[in-house]
Amino acid sequence: MTVLKTSMRNFFAHKGRMALSAVAVLLSVAFVCGTLVFTDTMNTTFDKLFAATSSDVTVSAKDASDTGETTSDTGKPPVIPAAALGTVRSAQGVEAAEGTVFSTSVTVVDADKDSLSPSSGAPTIVGSWNANDARTMKITSGAAPHGSGQVMVDEDTADKHHLRLGDEIAVISALGTHTAKISGIAAFQVTNPGAAIFYLDTPTAQRTLVGATDVFTNVNVTAAAGVSDAQLKKNVTAALGGDYKVQTAKETADANQASVGDFLDVMKYAMLGFAGIAFLVGIFLIINTFSMLVAQRTREIGLMRAIGSSRKQVNRSVLVEALLLGVVGSVLGVGAGVGIAVGLMKLMGQMGMHLSTDDLTVAWTTPVLGLVLGVVVTVLAAYLPARRAGKVSPMAALRDAHAPADARAGLVRAVIGLVLTGAGGYALYVAANADKASDGSLWLGLGVVASLIGFVVIGPLLAGGVVRVLGAVLLRVFGPVGRMAERNALRNPRRTGATGAALMIGLALVACLSVVGSSMVASATDQLDKTVGTDFIVQSDSGQVITPQAVQAIKSTRGLERVTEYKTLDANLTTPDGKVSKDETINAADPTYAKDLRTKTVAGDLTDAYRPDSMSVFEGFAKDHGIKLGSTVSVAFKDGRTAKLTVRAITSDDVVIDKGAMYASIATAARYVPADRMPLDQLVFATAKEGQQDAAYTSLKSALHDYPQYTVRDQTDYKQALKDQIGQLLNLIYGLLALAIIVAVLGVVNTLALSVVERTREIGLMRAIGLSRRQLRRMIRLESVVIALFGALLGLGLGMGWGATAQQLLALEGLKVLDIPWPTIIGVFIGSAFVGLFAALVPAFRAGRMNVLNAIATE
């Protein structure tokens, strides 16, 4: 009880200083709990959606996706004959069955040809209005579609694009463009995660989406009373035979949830990883806080020991304070986590993915995990300071207000740090010189971990040298105040090292990712300049194939010298060594593709691969299967017949664009794949006539005005798009790393605040002999800046080393250009100085307000 009272008294006596550590715990726990609540809520939303929209049993084509996704290389969904509907209706246990048609391989535009597709990446679905949809959608205005001239739209899409009854929209599919006027608007009865849905009547949907009125994409089956879904599935399967895919509502919902779950898991674990980094940074803050509090209470601890307190009791007293800190920070963090989850839901709503707070899901494991993590991390971080407090002897404590440094422990620490840093450097060296990226990645991971721990451990040793250099360069210009700031930073190298290490971790990751991202862009740009010989690339950013109508519009554009179509086909290959290589991709293109992409070959000429019944293979495949020029490969096209193709070229593996591709001509593929099964174009390349690039670019954009799902890019556009994509990813990562940097800033604030208290008497004496308040505040700000720059130097240096090593591994995959983004690196370094200034604002202000006489009288 005495230990608890002492701990409570000390905790509340330093509540201001504890608050900063508690905020670090709060932020880390909040990020963990917020991530879990947000992803659990998304899972709940999709679970409800899939459960509500799935019929008791669904019948579809055997090659249809388990999730119902209809995107295909042909632009048309897999279908089943309408006759199957009658067979299903006659099966035992069927109460009702209805044939439906829907597709996600569509684009819908308004009268101004602006796309109505969601910006969040959610699908655009066009289908036939049916009884199953009527269960989950309520018509709020107008009526369901009747006849080819009518269409119904979901309420969310109508509101977002300001659509009204009578407005004309167009559905663009692989079969052409169908226009209709809005006859009704329907609202979701469950949460809509952001999909845009349009309904046609069944005959119109059949003609528009699949081109025939005697087929369906699905048959929705309702079970009779007392018949389970599993039994109904057996009965329907028995009636139809094995030529169809038959799924229960649970199987359909599970398949859809598994598809969504993969994405959610990646997002969840990535965010938890950044929360873990914040926890790691928070450990340094807590260690520093308790180390300084223990140092300030050395005399008090000595008195406790002198009157009979044991080492265990002193140790326990400090750990109880840490426990209180962990509990307070974690409880507040759990509540803040729910707030973060709600904020993320609102943010997703702004991006077009609607999530209702009615589905907010807080599993019991979430607050428990948050509390356990926060408390355990805090107590573990406080263990070393607590153990150090227990070792203080009564006489030594009463003699001196501060515990003497353990020289032997410092030496051991330096040796361990040097060994770890050396091991990390060696691992990075091995990774950079690896022959295979897979082998090098293991060494890279080991090198990152070892060098990071090594720098953390050796931080106090590095602090002495680095701070002196920074002082000579930056602080000496401030005269005596600058020198005092330098000495203050050097006074306790362990404290400076720990504070700088907290900032170092986040900035090391920033520098590493900046180098990798910049090198990827530079390498890809270099490859584009060297290999791409066409002026324009036309593609869909959402992955849709290019419809024949759009291809014809491209070919009709004035000012073009050539247009090259590019398709992909799935096939099983039987090589000369008798082995079967399944699910390979054949890239079928027009012969002019050899001019559009100047791919290196190790044997033969790529132009010859586009001759009749010819193909190319890539270098690694040729070596694995003993293929040489003139070898014959049996190619069994997935949707066609088997061809015997002669290898006319072997392409180099030392490329980035189309690495590992196997080529044949479209004409060759067309001999073995029926026209109705031939995939549509994935890309179209266009080259302008000499001197007409600008005019052709404008004309090409104009020609595709009616097809907003496709983007026309010249090489400059393509490079910028690549840079933007990587930049957006990096910005997202930087945003997540900002949490760790915020915690590190709190550590600098806490260190300075406790340091000011520790030096109260000294500050009073300096003020008494003439140091002004302004000079005092400047001294503390400069000390903060030099600590922040120390952490920035270590972090940026370490991160650039990691990034350069990672780039060497990427070079094995063809990304050979190392590009150091100096503007980013320099900007981060300068920004670190401002971080130091910001962190010193409150401590410097409080130091300046000290009463000189009271400060001198402080023991």
TrEMBL record:
The keyword tRNA-binding belongs to this UniProt entry's keyword annotation: no
Subcellular localization, as worded in the UniProt entry: Cell membrane
GO annotations of cellular component type: plasma membrane
Topological relation to the membrane, as annotated: Multi-pass membrane protein
Similarity remark: Belongs to the ABC-4 integral membrane protein family.
Domain of life: Bacteria
GO molecular function: transmembrane transporter activity
A Pfam family reported for this protein in Swiss-Prot or TrEMBL: FtsX
Domain ABC3 transporter permease C-terminal: 274-394, 736-851
Main subcellular location: membrane
Keywords on record: Cell membrane, Membrane, Transmembrane, Transmembrane helix
Domain called MacB-like periplasmic core: residue spans: 19-238, 499-696
Phylogenetic classification of the source organism: Bacteria, Bacillati, Actinomycetota, Actinomycetes, Kitasatosporales
TM spans (from-to): 269-295, 318-344, 364-386, 407-430, 442-475, 496-517, 732-757, 782-802, 822-845
Name of the protein this chain belongs to: ABC transporter permease
